[in-house]
Specification:
The structure is a homodimer. Chain A is α+β, with helices and mostly antiparallel strands. The first copy, chain A, has one domain (5-202): 3-Layer(aba) Sandwich (Glutaredoxin), CATH 3.40.30. Chain A contains 10 helices and 4 strands; from the N terminus they run E-H-E-H-H-H-H-H-H-H-H-E-E-H. A 4-stranded mixed β-sheet of chain A has the order 2-1-3-4, sandwiched between helices. In chain A, helix 1 (17-31) crosses helix 6, helix 1 runs parallel beside helix 10 and helix 5 (92-100) crosses helix 9 (151-166). The longest helix of chain A is centred in the middle third of the chain and has 18 residues, at 60-77. Chain A binds chain B through residues 49, 59, 61-62, 64-65, 68-69, 72, 165, 168-171, 181-185, 187-188, 191, and chain B through 49, 59, 61-62, 64-65, 68-69, 72, 165, 168-171, 181-185, 187-188, 191.
């Protein structure tokens, strides 16, 4: 019986995607499910909803709540938290590098390291030096920064974003189970994993 | 040592407040915390955010997701689910009756029964007959329907709604712990209860 795979869709600038990305591998392994990181861009999806920035900036009370809640969530997971400035960060460069390296062994470490740099250390992920440092620590040659600028990578990132929209994704993190169920939010990660495991067992 | 009380703020028309209201008493009792139902009106708070209806109606993908997710949540809790029409319901009458009876023994049963009627049976909670039936089954005389129309009740409901806004509440269900921490959403109920218990223990 093969291990069910849950797609973990996220934008690198998404706040709650940080704790979700960090804890996902252990949660998934514990329950016997595999996760696949699928970066996309929330910007075009937000724009279609009439937003030109994060809803956490547009709706003040919601934003104030989110920052306090994220602080609590990180404390509970014992992971560092530092609010990045500006928010949201431009996640295009980070996403393109991830797409370029999507079949490489360093891909998952890189994804988590981008989140840690941004929300754990308050670094800017639109800074080429920051991304180069992350690649270096993940054991990837700096040449991936150039690959990230290729037409192919740009096309794939656009396609991934369009696919996210077509799957009904409207925020991040979002999880899609093998049978197509969507779960939204860090709080729903465990439910998504249990769903994937349960339906896999039921059809085995 | 006294039992900590968590305020459970909700609008009777709020979808995720239904499972939260139903499961809250057992969750709270299990952990040694007490909950207090605090109905208010989301309408004025949404209006201040520029919305003239539920965000689940304004943002189509989010709404589609919510209905499916609510169905799954109810199935997991083994509580009935039926999507009410129209959505959102006008929750003013239901809220005024709850405010009128806020110090009565039937208050909590009434609150849960309104949610069950609406989201479990698909009934209209702006229908006086529906509310009268709920009062009757909760053992409350029908005269409470008249009390609900008093100036005092109207004033208290406005005050409660304004207090919710001042507490930073922007959606429902929302939970406020004795030390003033806000937790938003059915998914965060258990965290709010644990927080209340933990800080109470720490300061005992």
């Amino acid at each position: 019986m093969s291990i069910p795979v849950v797609d973990f869709w996220f934008d690198f600038g998404s706040t709650y995607s940080y704790p979700a990305a960090i804890r996902a591998p252990a949660c998934a392994a514990k329950i016997g499910v595999s996760i696949r990181y699928r970066p996309f861009l929330l910007g075009p999806i937000f724009k279609a909803q009439g937003w030109d920035t994060s809803p956490f900036n547009i709706y003040e009370a919601k934003g104030r709540y989110m920052w306090r809640d994220l602080e609590r969530v990180c404390a509970e997971l014992s992971i560092p938290f530092r609010r990045p400035e500006p928010f949201p960060q431009d996640s295009l460069l980070a996403a393109r590098v991830a797409i370029a390296g999507r079949n490489e062994s360093w891909h998952d470490d890189y994804c988590r390291a981008v989140f840690r740099a941004q929300f754990g250390e308050g670094l800017r992920i639109d800074d080429t030096t920051v991304i180069a440092g992350i690649l270096h620590r993940a054991g990837a040659p700096a040449s991936w920064l150039e690959q990230a600028g290729s037409d192919d990578v740009k096309r794939v990132l656009r396609t991934e974003t369009e696919q996210a929209r077509q799957l009904g994704i409207f925020g991040a993190p979002s999880f899609i189970t093998p049978d197509g169920e969507l779960f939204w939010g860090n709080d729903r990660l465990d439910t998504a994993l249990a769903w994937a495991k349960g339906t896999a067992a039921a059809t085995a």
